[in-house]
Each structure stands twice: as structure tokens, then as C-alpha cells.
Write a structure and sequence with these properties.
- The protein is an alpha+beta fold and about 290 residues long.
- It has helices at about 80-85, 120-135, 175-180, 190-200, 215-225, 245-265, and strands at about 5-15, 15-25, 35-40, 45, 50, 55, 65-70, 70-75, 90-95, 95-100, 110-115, 140-145, 150-155, 160-165.
- The chain has an 8-stranded mixed sheet.
- A hairpin with a 2-residue loop joins strand 1 and strand 2.
- Helix 4 (about 190-200) runs parallel beside helix 6.
- The longest helix has 17 residues, at about 245-265.
- The relative contact order is 0.13.
Length: about 290
């Protein structure tokens, strides 16, 4: 089943426009998610909107309210939101072009695939895309997405574009508030040299296919174990802090260990004994 677009509208560069759609470029569908369960009945808990005076109410009857003072709200319904129609509600207007290095990585946020709609707009999209590629620049624009106007950065990727929503300036905290209190320490040159060699031994090509959410995988293993009546406990000890006295020795041991790990094949983890079975619940959970 084809993914549904997150946003549909137009991409505009000066007087050149074309219809486009945005699709979320990432997915969390495979991650483990949980529901709230009453352990006495194994029933799933339902969250019901409740008015303190009137009791349970239907979500479709509710409106949104902005609190202007204690217990005083300005109310908004769907028609009110529809009246706020900025150009960026349906158009990504490219306002400027910058070098990628000019954008602090703290500002990069969610990625979206930008795809031209089928029809006459494909040629205009190709013109904008190829011009951006020739210039070697990142396009900056804005659009209204999920109830907020967001600044976005667009870059060429293959036959399409990728749009990254950018965090607003007031959303990014000042690093100085956190780093200024770090004590000024002059690292021992010999220790730095050994640490640099360890880095060299661990140098590798970036391969995101090797990244696994081990916590998520451990949860899935525990779910399977619980289905079979076991516990599936997974634990790992926290490392001890390295004392200054032992720092040079730890670096030397790490250097030897890194060199050995690069040559020796990885050992298979020892199989654990199955956990003891647990008595079944009163009612099978969904």
C-alpha cells in the first residue's frame, strides 16, 4: 500500500511553480509500543475525554482553547483554523540559497521526501531540481505543517528533493549555558596520542544498516519469552568511571584491546538457560 502524503501543495521558485507532495522519510512502525492494561482483568484501558461537570464527552464535539489567564480560554474550532491561510499553507516558496555548512546541525530536524505530482508539473520540478544541483546550494523556504509554520531546508537527492524541517532559533538552547562550567583541563599529550591511535584503529565507513536498536530487540525477545511463560530478563552492568591515576593504563589496555579486536573474530554469545515458567494470567491479553 502506497504511503499517504503528509502535505500537498506547490513548490515555487520565483515565477516557476509545480505541484508537489511531501512524504515522511522515516518510519517507526517496527518499534515496540505498549498499551495500558489493567493487570486485574487484562483489559486494555480506554482514555475517555471527561468534563468535570458533564461527564464523558465525544471528541468530535470538542474545540481547542488557548489559555489567556487562569481558567479563561479563547476558543478555536476547525473553521477558525481554516481562516488562517498563509501562502505557506499550500506553497513552499524558496526564499534563499545557502551553503549546507552554514546550517548548524542542531537546527536540522525531520526529513521528508519531496515528489512532483504527476502531470505537467514534472518538467518545472526538474528545472528547479537541476538548477539547485548545478548551484550546489541548499534551498531555504517555509510551509505550514501540522499546525505550525516551519522553516525548511531542501536538498537534491537523486530524482527528487529532501526537505528537512528546521528548528526555530528559540528552540535551540545556547551551548554556552552548559559548556561554560566545564573545567579547563590540559590533557597529557602522551595520553592524547594513544587515544588518537585508538580512534585510528576504530576508523570505519559509515554504514547505517549496522545500527540496531538493541533495547527494542531486547523488548521483543522479552515479549516472546513472556508469551512462552518465561521472564526473558536482560541486564548489563554499568561501567566504572576511570580514575585519573588509572587513565594512562586504561588507554594502553584499550589500544591493545582495539588492535586484538580488529584481528580476532567475534565470539558467539553464550546461550542462557531458559527462565522458569510463570503461571498464566487470568485472561489472555490482546
Amino acid at each position: 500500500m502506497a504511503a499517504r502524503p503528509t502535505w500537498q501543495g506547490h513548490l515555487k521558485l520565483s515565477l516557476v511553480t509545480c505541484p508537489v507532495a511531501l512524504y515522511t522519510a522515516t518510519s517507526s512502525a517496527s518499534h515496540v509500543s505498549f498499551h495500558l492494561i489493567n493487570p486485574e482483568t487484562n483489559n486494555r484501558i480506554r482514555m475517555v475525554p471527561t468534563d468535570p461537570d458533564a461527564g464523558p464527552v465525544d471528541r468530535s464535539d470538542l474545540v481547542k482553547g488557548y489559555e489567556v489567564s487562569k481558567d479563561e480560554y479563547v476558543l478555536f474550532d476547525d473553521e477558525d483554523f481554516d481562516k488562517v491561510r498563509l501562502e505557506s499553507t499550500r506553497t513552499i516558496s524558496i526564499d534563499e540559497f545557502v551553503d549546507e555548512a552554514d546550517i548548524d546541525r542542531l537546527y536540522w530536524n525531520d526529513p521528508f521526501f519531496v515528489v512532483p505530482e504527476k502531470g505537467v508539473g514534472a518538467e518545472a520540478f526538474a528545472v528547479i531540481r537541476d538548477a539547485m544541483q548545478a548551484a550546489g546550494k541548499i534551498a531555504i523556504g517555509c510551509l505550514v505543517l501540522r499546525g505550525r509554520e516551519r522553516q525548511i531546508a531542501l536538498e537534491v537527492r537523486g530524482k527528487g528533493l529532501v526537505a528537512y524541517s528546521l528548528r526555530a532559533h528559540d528552540e535551540v538552547r545556547d551551548a554556552a549555558d552548559y559548556f561554560d562550567d566545564i573545567p579547563t583541563v590540559k590533557a597529557d599529550p602522551d595520553m592524547v596520542e594513544i587515544a588518537t591511535r585508538i580512534i585510528g584503529q576504530k576508523e570505519a565507513d559509515f554504514d547505517p544498516s549496522q545500527f540496531k536498536d538493541r533495547y527494542d530487540e531486547a523488548l521483543k525477545a522479552m515479549i516472546k519469552a513472556k508469551q512462552k511463560g518465561g521472564e526473558g530478563l536482560v541486564e548489563a552492568a554499568e561501567p566504572d568511571d576511570t580514575n585519573v591515576i588509572d587513565l594512562m593504563e586504561a588507554l594502553r589496555a584499550s589500544l591493545k584491546g582495539s588492535a586484538g579486536a580488529a584481528k580476532a573474530p567475534a565470539k558467539k554469545a553464550a546461550a542462557k538457560k531458559p527462565a522458569a515458567k510463570k503461571a498464566p494470567a487470568k485472561k489472555k491479553a490482546a
